[in-house]
Each structure stands twice: as structure tokens, then as C-alpha cells.
Amino acid sequence: MLKEEVPQDKELFGDQSGICYALDANGRYVLAEFSGWEPANIANSQAWEAISLEVADILAEIRAGKRSPLAYHMVANQMDEKLLAEYTGLFRWQVRRHLRPGPFNGISAKLRGRYASLFSITAEELGAIPDTTALARLQTAKLRSKE
To answer: What is the 3-state secondary structure (H, E, C) of 25-40?
Structure first.
């Protein structure tokens, strides 16, 4: 694609922009600024919609007493049990166990702090049941951090 043809669809990025490679007038690859591209915007919107549905399901399970708040933070940060175990230095079975309310409530302050530090929150926030507006804040923060 030529540098002059780089898409400038501001739907998802707003006033932010990204960088991509494009061909200049001499046929060489150069960096070109872009503000979005409709297919990418659609794909990102669909991905956030899927994440929103998954987080809503997890919140319902937490409120029903089937899952611990750790499950929310794991899903909201786009992690699975394996990845969370790797980042915390725990075994996968330990993380899986902590996703249940009873075992989660019994973890040590040190371990709670390890989880909280990973998610850049306090230990109190880790143990609290997040409200539904937390997802909206998360989406906004994720979009801004990608810029």
C-alpha cells in the first residue's frame, strides 16, 4: 500500500494514531502514521464484545458464590489459568484452586499481595467483587494503553 493510501479511520483510536509500513513514491518501505482501519476496528470491537460477555459471565458466577474475585481479574486481564500460574510462580492447580471462593479467602496476605501486584491493584481490590462499571473502565484503559 502506498503511503498516501494508508487508512485514516478514527473510529476506534479517536485522536490517537499508530504506525505501519507503507511504500513511498520511490517504492521503499517507510513508516506511515495511521488512525485506524475499518476491518481492524471491526475485529477489535468484536473482540472487546466477546471479552465483555465473558467478564459478565464471570461476574455472575462470582455473585452466585461459584468463583472468587480472582477469576474476574484473570479474565479482565485476558489471562487463563496457565498464564496466571506462570506470572505468579504458582502451579496451575494452585491457581485453579484459588479461583474457588473458599480457598481464595484462605490464602495468605503474601500470596494475595503477589496476585494484586501482578494486576497493579491493592490486595483489598483483589478481594472485592467488582461492579459492572469496572469493565467499561477496563476497556477504556486497554484501548488507551495500546496507543
So the answer is: CCCCEEEEEECECHHH
Torsion of CA 140, 46, 116, 87, to 10 degrees: -130
User: Residue 135 — φ and ψ, nearest 5°?
Assistant: -65, -40
Instruction: Specify which residues 123 forms β-bridges with.
Output: none
- Rounded CA separation 120/74 (Å): 12
- Fold of the 43-145 domain: 434 Repressor (Amino-terminal Domain) (1.10.260)
Cβ-based neighbour number of residue 28 at 10 Å: 9
Cβ pair 38, 12 in contact under 8 A: no
The per-residue pLDDT for range 51-105, each reduced to its tens digit, is: 888 988 999 999 999 999 999 999 989 999 999 999 999 999 999 999 999 999 9
CB of 123 closer than 8 Å to CB of 116: yes
**How many angstroms separate the most distant Cα atoms in the chain?**
65
Domain boundaries in the chain?
3-36, 43-145
136's grid cell: 467499561
**What is the pTM assigned to this prediction?**
0.70
